Amino acid sequence: MIWEIGFTTDLAEAKRHNTLLAGIAMKKLDPPFTHSRIIGRTKEEATANLEEMLDFGIAHHSRMAEIYRATGADGKKADAYHIWTAEAAGVDFFISLDKKLINSIRHQNKITIKTEVLYPAEVVCRLVK
Fold it and tell me: Mean of the pLDDT values across residues 81-106?
């Protein structure tokens, strides 16, 4: 299993992830696209800068735009970005607890997404078989 390392400040969430993935071999996956941290003097400024970066990605990268459109009106630009980068890196599974995201990907029929978007339990079941 390869993964993009996620960082969290929520200790309970980190422990839950570590327990769920205990015993599964992993390696760090470098992102296929260079990006930088979104910096702003205020939270609002940082959010605006992030939106600008995501809008740029949708406007200039056709595959990200396809994935964003496929998620429907409720699609989140950041989710499209993460799925796009996972797909471009050849990741088999994109693990999420976001029910809305998973349902939007599973119930769209506009495009084929090479990276499967799954709940953590679904990935564990596949890896244990």
Answer: 88
